[in-house]
Structure formats: structure tokens, C-alpha cells
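Input C-alpha cells:
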């Protein structure tokens, strides 16, 4: 197992290097991070030139990339080219906010999606199955930004008509409120619901299909022939094997959630890493954009590795040499 993990990590290094180099090249060519400073009449040309030389913006892209990689390890992702402030504290702060939203959304989506998928498979072609199949298709096809805007309009309308504040439609929390206070939950509820609906549709469909495939397997018929109670057959034999694809989907879906968080956090103006990325991209802040890409890439690689390791726990037939 340890050999397999080490091999996967070694395989991920060239992939990470290639992806970051391409991203660095494209972002470098997309805009000038000093454009805002050039437009400021109070910013002297001498200071601007010194800033360009200090950040190696006059060097070729391969050299700039090598210097940026050095800063990633030696200076915790370096400094912003626009604000000239360290990037690491902003990444830690915004990533914590995004993780709070994503973990709540993903947890709810997995629990509800797996439960609905199991019951839909057991009661195949029932009214429950038809209803949630339709709901899943609608949720899966619904654009993230459209659902977010609909929820905003709905709860703003409720507040204006009835004067009842159920959920807030923007921001992370009111002043002087804690990270896990009721006020914070009211602020992030709509982003959580937005991401949860889309992920729920994905998990429920995959769980239903995986359950139906497992129910018709020979080992399930053998378990029933031995006289095991139906609930033991479902939980011990069907559900355990049906969860294997869900582990893969959950790990891969993390990247989708991080991408969806960009849209969701922008709509709800949350101080998350997705909103941070949009702001830094608009100002062509190269190092801050690359910090986002590196952090999210490493997170996705880690969760994919975790998914592969969990295969062995869910299915004893899977072994890593």
C-alpha cells in the first residue's frame, strides 16, 4: 500500500509541474499585473520599473516560472503583484471559508443522495423512484448560477413581502459573529443549498444505478439463498459494493465543487477562495491566481489518492501491489 501511495505521488509531480507551467504561461500572456499601477498618476515610473525588476516581470516566462516555483516553497506562495502583500494569509482565510461551505454541501449531498439512491433502487419504478428521478434530472441539468440567482430572488422576495429574514443572500456573516454561529449558517445556507442540489442529483443517480447492478449479482442471489434477512443482504452485500463508484464520484466531484464555488461565491459575494480567484484574475494578479491553481490542484490530487486507497477498504478483492 505504501509503495502504491508513493508511486501515485511521484506520478502526480510531473502532472502538477506541466499544468502549473501551462497555467503560468497563459495567465502571464492574458494581462499586465502593473496596468493598475501604470494608470495611477501618483505612481512614479522609477518605482514602477523597480517593481518590475524586483518581481522579474522583465524576464522570459520560463525564468519567471522557475523563480515563482522557488517562491512557492521558500516564501509560502510569494507576494501579490498588485497589493504587494503576502498571498498565504489570504489563501488560508478564503480556503477556510470555502471549505466550510463545500463540506456542508458535500456532506448533505452524499447522505441524501445515497439514501435516495438506495430507496429508489429497492423500490424501482415506484412513485418515489419516478419523482426523485425527475428531481435528479432537473437538478443535474440546472446551471449553478441560475439556481443561485433563483434562491436569492426567492428569499429577498420573502423578506420584502413578509419581513421575515430566513437566510441572507450575500456575505459570510454579520460583524462580530463567529465562524460557526447561527448567523454564519444563515449567510452560507443558500450557497450550501445551491451546491448540494447539484451534487445530490449526481450521487442519487449513480447510487441507484450501482445498487441495481449489485442487486442482480450472483453473490446477492447466493446470500438470499443462504437465508440471510433482506436487510443484511442489502446493507452487507449490496450497499457496500454499490458505494465503490460513489467514492470515485465524490473525489472527482470535489474539483467540480471548487469550480462551482467560483460561480456560487461570486453570486453570493462570499469571501471564499473562488471569489478571491475571480478578483485576482480580473486584476491580472499572476502570483495570486497561480496560488489558487496550485492549492486546488493539490487538493484534487490528494482526494483522488484518498479515493483510490478507500477502494481496498470497500472491496477486499482490490489489492495494491
Amino acid at each position: 500500500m505504501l509503495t502504491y501511495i508513493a508511486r501515485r505521488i511521484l506520478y502526480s509531480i510531473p502532472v502538477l509541474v506541466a499544468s502549473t507551467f501551462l497555467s503560468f504561461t497563459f495567465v502571464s500572456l492574458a494581462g499586465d499585473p502593473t496596468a493598475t499601477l501604470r494608470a495611477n498618476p501618483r505612481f512614479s515610473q522609477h518605482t514602477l520599473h523597480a517593481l518590475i525588476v524586483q518581481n522579474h516581470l522583465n524576464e522570459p516566462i520560463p525564468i519567471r516560472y522557475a523563480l515563482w516555483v522557488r517562491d512557492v516553497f521558500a516564501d509560502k506562495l510569494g507576494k501579490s503583484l498588485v497589493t504587494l502583500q503576502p498571498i498565504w494569509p489570504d489563501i488560508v482565510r478564503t480556503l477556510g471559508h470555502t471549505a466550510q461551505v463545500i463540506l456542508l454541501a458535500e456532506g448533505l449531498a452524499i447522505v441524501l443522495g445515497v439514501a435516495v439512491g438506495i430507496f429508489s433502487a429497492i423500490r424501482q419504478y415506484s412513485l418515489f423512484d419516478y419523482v426523485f428521478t425527475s428531481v435528479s434530472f432537473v437538478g443535474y441539468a440546472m446551471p449553478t448560477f441560475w439556481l443561485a440567482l433563483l434562491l436569492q430572488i426567492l428569499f429577498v422576495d420573502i423578506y420584502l413581502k413578509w419581513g421575515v429574514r430566513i437566510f441572507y443572500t450575500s456575505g459570510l456573516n454579520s460583524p462580530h459573529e463567529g465562524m460557526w454561529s447561527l448567523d454564519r449558517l444563515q449567510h452560507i445556507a443558500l450557497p450550501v443549498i445551491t451546491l448540494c442540489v447539484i451534487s445530490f442529483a449526481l450521487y442519487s443517480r449513480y447510487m441507484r444505478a450501482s445498487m441495481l447492478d449489485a442487486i442482480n449479482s450472483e453473490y446477492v442471489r447466493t446470500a438470499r439463498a443462504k437465508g440471510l434477512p433482506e436487510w443484511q443482504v442489502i446493507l452487507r452485500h449490496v450497499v457496500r459494493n454499490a458505494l465503490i463508484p460513489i467514492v470515485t464520484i465524490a473525489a472527482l466531484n470535489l474539483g467540480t465543487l471548487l469550480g462551482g464555488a467560483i460561480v456560487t461565491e461570486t453570486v453570493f459575494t462570499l469571501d471564499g477562495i473562488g471569489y478571491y480567484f475571480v478578483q485576482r484574475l480580473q486584476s491580472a494578479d499572476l502570483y495570486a491566481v497561480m496560488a489558487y491553481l496550485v492549492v486546488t490542484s493539490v487538493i484534487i490530487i490528494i482526494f483522488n489518492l484518498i479515493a483510490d486507497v478507500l477502494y481496498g477498504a470497500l472491496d477486499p478483492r482490490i489489492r495494491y501491489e
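The two ends are 7 Å apart (CA to CA). The chain has two domains: 23-74, 95-314.
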